[in-house]
Amino acid sequence: MTVIKDKYGQIRYYADLSDKNMFILLHKNEKHCPRINRYYVLKVCWPRPQESNQHYLRRIQSEFSVASSLHHDNIVDTFEVLPIGHDHRCLCMEYCAGGDIHSLIVAAGKLQKEEADCFFKQLIHGVTYLHEEGISHRDLKPENLLLTRDGCLKICGFDYVERFYDDQENKFYMSTGYCGSTPYISPEQYLNTEFDPRRVDIWAAAIIYIVMRTGRNRWNAATNEDEYFKDYMNERTFGRRTSFLEDICYGHSLSIIYAMLSISPEGRPAASAILTSYWLREIQSCKVCQ
Predict the structure, then answer these.
(1) Which residues form the Protein kinase domain (predicted)?
(2) 14, 121, 167, 239: which could join 283 in a potential S-S bond, CB 3.0 to 4.6 Å?
(3) Residue 287: its pLDDT value, please?
């Protein structure tokens, strides 16, 4: 830890937020020339239950390999993977002083349309970039959307990230199985079939928009065992009005959200198509992120 503090500064705060990760805030403040006054976050990654040390190290290195290769205004910067403690690893990332979207929703109850639209557009910017890089996030949720002090949204949390395209071999890979946080998992992930991982992110982004606007999830899991999701599926099947969507969306935004929440993944639009839609073109994003 001494080597880490020499490089990234003194510990200002730490939080053990889950059984998966611990976060440590560091402050580098040097007054000599050139002056350095910057905050960093260490994401300390714990091994999963029954995970071998070899698999743990390979998993963290894989997460770092992807995260550190991404450079976009709406993606959090990841600088380095470092040893910490006994055979553990941590990722050094940029610090986002504005917290995360989840905390903002909890504090506000729900977000106003202009605010939610702004964040949604930034999210789609980030997702479009990921998909263009051949990467699916697989765990989009409000907790993984950080905010800078100026309101710039940055996607983080690349624990389940997946490369679906190999540009050297010009090969596309389908996915199977489910991962991520249950309320944001799309229905096809529960089926014993292959699916396009990009459509998983599109579904999750639509759910995030609904949560921002309403302050809550509409169902616990997108399965037939969930009565609320079953009602939604029946409404879509028989072309009936979905009140919780039509209460928060209208016109172009309603058609886009309906399409993003298509039960069939093939019916969901690509992130690039959403980004160039009339709805998103009309949304005024924060200037710092334009």
Answers:
(1) 1-280
(2) 121
(3) 55
